[in-house]
Amino acid sequence: MNFRVDKNILLALLAAGAFIFAFASELFLESKNETLLKTNTQGIEYKILKESWLNKEYSKNYIDTLTAQMGKGYFSAVVTKKELKGDIYTVGLMILNSDEFDAIIRQILNSNLKINKLDIVSNDVGYLVDLEVTL
Amino acid sequence: MPGVKSLFRAQKISNAILEEFAGDESYAIKTSKGGDGVYFFIAIDAAYTTKKLFSTLGVDVQNFEFTTAQEFFGELETPILISENYAIVSIEGVIEKVPTAYLSQTPTDNLNGFVLSNNGSFTTFGLNDKNAKKVESQADDSVASKVVAASLVALSLAWLVEGVVNLKRASGVGAKVAELREEYKLPQTTLEIDNVVSKAKSVEDKQNQIRKALKALNNLPLNEGESVEAIKISISEVAISIKTGREEQILASLKKQLGSVSSAKEGDKISFRVAIK
What we know:
The complex is a heterodimer. Chain A is α+β, with helices and mostly antiparallel strands. Chain A has three helices and four strands, in the order ααββαββ. Chain A has helices at about 5-50, 55-70, 100-110, and strands at about 80-85, 90-95, 115-120, 125-135. Chain A is rod-shaped and about 100 Å long. The relative contact order of chain A is 0.11. By secondary structure, chain B is α+β, with helices and mostly antiparallel strands. Chain B is built from seven helices and twelve strands. Chain B has helices spanning about 5-15, 20, 45-55, 70-75, 130-185, 190-220, 245-260; strands spanning about 25-35, 40-45, 80, 85-90, 95-100, 110, 115-120, 120-125, 225-235, 235-245, 260-265, 270-275. In chain B, the strands form four sheets. In chain B, strands 5-4-3-6 form a four-stranded mixed beta sheet. In chain B, strand 7 and strand 8 (about 120-125) form a beta hairpin. In chain B, helix 3 (about 45-55) crosses helix 5 (about 130-185). The longest helix of chain B has about 55 residues, at about 130-185. Chain B starts with 6 loop residues before the first helix and ends with a strand. The chains are: A alpha+beta, B alpha+beta. At the A-B interface, helix 1 and strand 3 of A face helix 5, helix 6 and strand 9 of B.
């Protein structure tokens, strides 16, 4: 039996095994780094979304602020309904003035309110607006 | 030899018998006792012999020790078969070649080519030319073999160290990921995080679609006599009801802005619908 050849074969196998180990560990590290990058990106996205579309306090305050000045002047918009059930906030408005109507609709559209339902009916008196949002 | 009655005495005079080899370090002198008071004095060229033996026996020269057949087989307890009919036995410390038919004990070992016996005495064995050449090339290969072995060891160590360092770094990265999940209040598993983030993005996407559709519908340029009767928005659909006779024109304009838009006539009103996906 040629012991030198056997020894070199064993060393070659050891080297091959060490190479596979190094390569596999490299791939493992790479996947971990990808996970880190993805987690950081998703974390930032989620934070932004939570502060905008998923911000209950913001949504409630926005509607309260929107409706706070209504009914205080002539031909001003009037709140016909305001109901909070759980996370569902329902508001009914009657808007007489078309300029005020445009302004209110613009405020709703430019907000981050999570609109479930927005019904607008135009009649001879003005506009009837039924807004339902999820906080 | 007169006056030489033991191997010990024979060893004492071996340098004198082989005086031309005694001063030369490349030779090893061995003394062996045969049968009938015969003593053998042998000068062995160490380097040459070890090379030759390596090629036939495969024994590494570093591990090789010179001995004679007499010393090696001197205390045989069981006979060794050297051919079909003859075996080597040890009789009173002297190795002898004996016909197997004379043995009461069956020989258990086979000896092939190690010792050639001739007329009751032992002789050293010889190698043929083919094996001699193989031994010479083996000596050249041994240096290259050491270099290869050293390189393989160095590479193995380097790769092992690299692997361990990578695993350590990966562990650090894993800890950082856990920190980020804690900081952003994300769930623990990747699947759950994907689910939560995609749901939140879906909310944003739908709301943006609603707003885009409503803006387009609300900003439709209407002619005199035309009016928006109603706007109905849900999370699945945005619909506008307009008193108009320009169904095709308005539909084309809305399709240009919003893509897929459907229309339906409801009396004197036309209802335009955009699906929210």
